[in-house]
Amino acid sequence: MPVKKSPVPIKKKSATKKAPPRKAARAKVAVAKPAAKPAAKPSTKKPKGRRPVGPEAVHEIFARFQKSNPEPKGELDYVNPFTLLVAVVLSAQATDVGVNKATRALFAIADTPEKMVALGEERIRDYVKSIGLFRTKAKNVFLLSQQLIENYNSEVPRSRDILQTLPGVGRKTANVVMNMAFGEPTIAVDTHLFRVSNRIPMAIGKTPLAIELGLEKIIPAEFKRHAHHWLILHGRYICKARRPECERCLISDICTSSDKIL
Ligand code: SF4
Questions:
Q1: N or C: which end of the chain has fewer CB within 10 A?
Q2: Taking the CA of residue 25 as centre, how many other CA atoms within 13 Å lie in the half-sphere pointing to its CB?
């Protein structure tokens, strides 16, 4: 049957519009800001386990070193203060054995500032080319020889401050020369001595200068002259960086290092 159309158009039920959801009222909660922390004061406490050994222990350490090696020597070859100065300048970041190999022939023909200058920078370079940083070092040796001739009557000055004005000469080099050439009780801090002092510990410090000044205060006068040699040799042959040989260490009963292996 045909469907009759209604005379009145049937209104489609309009969908009831939902009111847009009301934005949730934001609760105004006051969030307290964390109070600013007061600036931390540097601690004046010494780190645990890093107390330097006392004066009696320091005396005992050097008494034992002295007993076992009364006249410790450095291991660089030289024939006079000038060749000592040159050898120490060449030894930066190089082994004493390597430097001795190179200087044997060099010092045979140039053991004074005049002879070194006469040799010339280029030939000095040839002699020391087996040593690290040889170009810079050869130049420094040539220039310092010139300066010794011009300003110091060809003599090595007996003053740490003056030595440090020469090319290639820093505080450690000056201390070695003052000690070995002139018998002054200076303490030259190399990488071995730095490690040993911080390990035992005797003087504690983050820089070679801090260690040098710290040791100067605590080493008894009777041991000062040879102190740096004893400590350097101890660090080079016993208290080694990677594996200290504590089982044959003379001072293992005094050392408080956490690196100690017994
Ligand atoms: S006991 Fe070991 S760590 Fe301590 S000084 Fe001797 S070798 Fe070095």
A1: N
A2: 3
**What global pTM score does this model have?**
0.79
pLDDT in tens, 66-119: 999 999 989 999 999 999 999 999 999 899 999 999 999 999 999 999 999 999
111 and 159 together in one domain: yes
In a domain, 97, yes or no: yes
> Any residues with Cβ below 6 Å from ligand 1, and which?
199-200, 238-239, 244-246, 249, 251-252, 255, 257, 259-260
Is residue 259 classed exposed, middle or buried when 0-12, 13-18 and 19+ CB atoms within 10 A define those classes?
A: middle
> Which residue type is seen at 165?
T
143 domain residue, yes or no: yes
Structural domain boundaries enclosing 133: 72-184
